[in-house]
Amino acid sequence: QVQLVESGGGLGQAGGSLRLSCAASGRTFSSYAVGWFRQAPGKDREFVVGISWSGDNTIYADSVKGRFTVSGDNAKNTVYLQMNSLKPEDTAIYYCAARSRSISASYHLGYTYDYWGQGTQVTVSS
After folding, report:
1. pLDDT over 80 at 23, yes or no
2. Could you say which of 30, 46, 94, 112 has the lowest number of CB atoms within 10 Å?
3. Are 49 and 37 in contact (CB under 8 A)?
4. Which residue, among 111, 27, 20, has the nearest Cα to 71 in the 3D structure?
5. What is the DSSP string of 40-53?
């Protein structure tokens, strides 16, 4: 199993940047595919980005493409979500999740992920 802890959320300004971290323990991220999701108050959970640890398959939601970048640090067993050009509509609780690399379903399907972090709040002011 893997345990996930998100951090780095907070208050950002429109047009500014934040970097979220997802630290894993138990197993390395190399054993999993990793997804970032977000959920705004009163709205459904939304896919942000999914990535295989090898980096050979990365998919961004259209709403964040060109603004957000996902990356990883094997030594720290941590995945990062760099968020640039923030918009007020980016306000949400952000979650990282992990699933077996053997799963071939689309990254955007949250129910295919077995492990979830506790979430970190991102608030973007205009």
Report:
1. yes
2. 30
3. no
4. 20
5. -TTS--EEEEEEET
